[in-house]
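User: For my dataset I need records formatted as: sequence, then structure tokens, nothing else. Please produce one.
Assistant:
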Amino acid sequence: MKLCRCPICHSNLHLEALIEDEAGRELLAKISQLTHGVAKPMVAYLGLFKPAQSNLSNSRALKIMGDVLELYECSKLLAHCLSETVQSVRKKRLNGQNMEPLANHNYLKSVYETQKATFVTQPAMRAETPEQRLKEDKNRTAIEYIQRYVNLGQEDYVKNTPEYQIWLDWENKQNNG
């Protein structure tokens, strides 16, 4: 069954191809079960382990994801740390530093330890509704999108977008405590 076209290479993406092997099925199942907005940054984090001349196998990606989930439980803190790690490593690679794929989770561990002190974890008072999760994911995506432009010094290109206002509100909250 043809799902869609790849936004990068424009080839057809088939559901059968995604679940062809056991590791692929298990990987998709685990990613779909991640909570607290961890799925998207986890997929990006897995990409940091991809060898330069080949693809990352599903079994290796599954092992890497399992290692991360053994170290840390799904939380907003983990989602944030994964995003920060991905953003930092990609920035270094763009600057020509450390082009090698990651070999371990040491960088994520250091980011996690650094961010843990600034994150206040509170027990959930009520269950999150799907609408709340969707809105939160949309806001997180908007913030990450604009933050990339800001990091590249290209903020002027996105100042008139609705995402910029979301990012600006978030940035003001971060600066004001």
